Amino acid sequence: MRIKVRTQEPLRKLLDNEQVVEVSGTTVFEVIKTLQVRYPRFVERLLESDGSVRRFVNVYVNEEDIRFLQNQQTALRDGDEVRIISAIAGG
């Protein structure tokens, strides 16, 4: 099952500057674990030490926030897109 992972520019450098990374997985959790093997520094920025997604990081599956789905246990289908976006604050 191929899943497309996209992120914005500040995090993209941790994915070897790839605009889209294709990985396999049936849940968001599995996708994150696959990314952790290939891009450990990226996942360090994504997850807290307990394995939860950092509060300033938003993860979407096909434009739906995983916090309103099943979080990291959100099921994925072939061709789904996971977007990982770091919240940006300013004043």
Q: Average pLDDT across residues?
A: 93
How much of the polypeptide forms β-strand, as a percent range?
A: 25-35%
The order of strands across the largest sheet is 2-1-5-3-4
Structural classification:
alpha+beta
CATH homolog superfamily: Beta-grasp domain
- CATH third-level topology: Ubiquitin-like (UB roll)
Q: What ranges have pLDDT less than 50 throughout 5 or more consecutive residues?
A: none
How do the helices and strands follow one another from N- to C-terminus?
EHEHHEEE
How far the N terminus sits from the C terminus, by CA atoms, comes to: 42 Å
How many E-type strands? 5
User: What is the highest CATH level, the class?
Assistant: Alpha Beta
Assign the CATH architecture: Roll
> Main sheet, how many strands, which sense, barrel?
5 strands, mixed
Structural Rg: 12 Å
Oligomer: single chain
